[in-house]
Amino acid sequence: MSTPTPDFDVSNFERELILRNMRIEDYDSMVAMQKACFPDMQPWTKEQVESQLAHFPEGQIVIECDGKLVASSSSLLLHYDDDLEWHDYKKIADSGFIRNHQPTGDTLYGIEIMVHSDFRGMRLSRRLYDARKELCRSRNIEQMIVGGRIPGYHLHAEEMKASEYIDRVIDKTFFDPVLTAQIANGFSLQGLIPNYLPTDLQSCGYATFLEWRNLDYVSAGKRRFRRTVRPVRIGSVQYQMRAVKDFEEFAQQARYFVDVAGDYKCDFLLFPELFTTQLLSFLPNERPGQAARTLAEYTPQYLELFSHLAVKFDTNIVGGSHFVIEDEKLYNVAFLFHRDGRIDKQYKLHITPSERKWWGVAGGPGIEVLQTDCGPICIQVCYDIEFPELSRLAVEKGAQIIFVPFNTDNRHGYMRVRTCAAARCVENHVYVAIAGCTGNLPFCENADIHYAQSAVLTPLDVTFAREGIGAEANPNIETVVIYDVDLELLRRHREQGSVQNWNDRRLDLYRLTETKTDSGE
Which residues belong to any copy of the N-acetyltransferase domain (predicted)? Predict the structure, then answer.
């Protein structure tokens, strides 16, 4: 069996979002972005940027999208001192040259963050703040301090004081494009600074004094009592099937769940298997086999939608699964939309009798382990989780989380998926997230009724959730469940758990060998 050849190029729907350290070659693009973001302020000189890169290169960060510079962040390290003139931007930032940078400092001071106006709404500032926070954690820096602009204040300056405006922003009465984002990113307000940057006319010269504390910070000579964690936040959608009038109405329903995942800062959001069959509700009534192929014609719109949502809401999306035609064969394919714009896919390998009978689906070529920014993961579409060999192979290749989009019509089918998913957790020391559809699609053959109870499942031991259920939805209610898994617990469990299934395999008696199916092998 050879690897299917796509009838479309998935790269046409990918975006390349890269967060990296700044280079001097970025200077011209940065100046153009600064002029667009802060038209009333003098942009950095090349000498200032060169000085920043010479003194603290890892503190200068940019984001580029499809080769274009779209956001940047500048910072330096200092030793915290109450007598430092935090209110004086020119002194604290050395007029932008940061020659006062202290490599052993305990405080990261943020000089500037800017996002190109054409790319706002994509949570790029969150990515920059997260990069700063990770720098603090990796270098054991105690805190981050920023002097934040309040560019919305000039609209209200004649009617209220700056302190009143800030109170209104904090209580959500007003929205400020900078302060609102900073509060959402975990900063706490410590004070108000007048005459911070007089040329900032939008802020009327004011700035907020904001602080973020690194909870992982360990003082020199002190023992760390807090356990090390590697948290990954998973959202699992329980998606209600209902008639829609067009693709945009379907997109609106999907967009809602991704928006929720973005607000909760999910690392992954899992949709159900074949939830795109909802589109059949507005398509001409055809025989099931032809209807599935008509549905496959919406593959470009589906890929464009979820690729955009993953980047915009900063969430890796396991986009359920969708019918795709390749080499004139119909496949059931799960796509992983990375939040940096990449797209991966996993074919469903084991085809149920119902899928063969009604739709004529073909099985895919092999199991993939997909590399993500949260470690290696695996996708097993519904029936595939009922074959334990696949999970063994995936874990041998490094997978730590298995995502199972499923679509079942009754409780019996659901329980087969659920029971096998729980078993895979025990056998392989992994987390398994499952997501299914609920609701009805009248007159859509083989896609008319649904039963689901989405969940995030864990191994069964004292360090994990009770009964191995991290989070669980109520049956047949449209919702999303969110749960933080800890990858460090998996490592410890494999080495020190009450039972160690992976280590205790009798490899002298049995082994699992993967058969290659691509290139005719």
Answer: 17-216
